[in-house]
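Notes from the 1:1 (GR / supervisor)

We went over the backlog. Supervisor wanted to see one worked example end to end before approving the batch request, so GR pasted a single chain during the call. The sequence is below; no edits were made to it. Supervisor asked that the structure be written out right there so they could see what the output format looks like.
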Amino acid sequence: MEKVTGIGGFFFRAQDTKALAAWYRDTLGVNLVPEGPDDAPWIQEAGPTVFAPFSADTDYFGRDDQAFMLNFRVNDLDAMLAQLREADIDISREEEMEGVGRFARIHDPEGNPIELWEPAGG
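Structure output shown during the call:
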């Protein structure tokens, strides 16, 4: 059976696309969308990716109308959280799941939830 080999992109609506793209670049290090042959897309490091539909009535994402939540892997959650706090970004949730890893929740400027994940044993 032929199968997909990874996520090729993540596309979502935004009120201010340029400002939001700059926030992801400046806050989380995600390159802007390439606009020409000399621009490089963001290249993620190899590692686990969880693809998990959630129940339509989950409250895990936050707002009831929130249909998705980004989850980014990080190597050092403590260092990332220190960097985010230095930038006055609110960390709304921190937790650890035994055998899975540590998690923290932030939101982008448009209110989209972002989960940061330091996998166990990383």
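Supervisor's comment: The mean pLDDT is 92.
Batch request approved.
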